[in-house]
Write a structure and sequence with these properties.
- The protein has three helices and five strands, in the order αβαβββαβ.
- The chain is of the alpha/beta class and about 110 residues long.
- Helix content is about 25%, strand content about 20%.
């Protein structure tokens, strides 16, 4: 499990910018302390990949900067990583669907 963030970061391919959907410790939570997505984000950033996040429950996240919805330009992100399964069906049915991948930390 300790190598999982590195393996997942390698799996996103040759990207320069990633949007993370859901950064909370668990779905619908305002707590991000000990969130399993943090090592993943840090690994992406160590590869000089720009990382932003969107989470309606979390505004103060020390690991990366937020993005407001609605997203105005799909071209701003090479990859959208959905962290919580409850978000997947929404993002998979948007104009961003070709960029969506799923990261489940459980």
């Amino acid at each position: 499990l300790e190598r999982r963030p590195l393996v997942l970061a390698d799996s996103v391919g040759n990207v320069k910018s990633v949007l993370i959907v859901g950064v909370g410790y668990k779905p619908n939570s305002s707590s991000w302390i000990n969130s399993p997505v943090i090592p993943f984000i840090k690994t992406l950033r160590s590869k000089n990949i720009s990382v932003r996040y969107v989470d309606p429950f979390i505004r103060d996240f020390d690991v990366c900067e937020p993005v407001d919805l609605p997203l105005d330009n799909p071209d701003n992100y090479d990859c959208i990583v959905v962290n919580h399964p409850y978000c997947l069906s929404y993002w998979a049915n948007t104009e961003f669907k070709d960029k969506v991948t799923y990261y489940c930390h459980h």
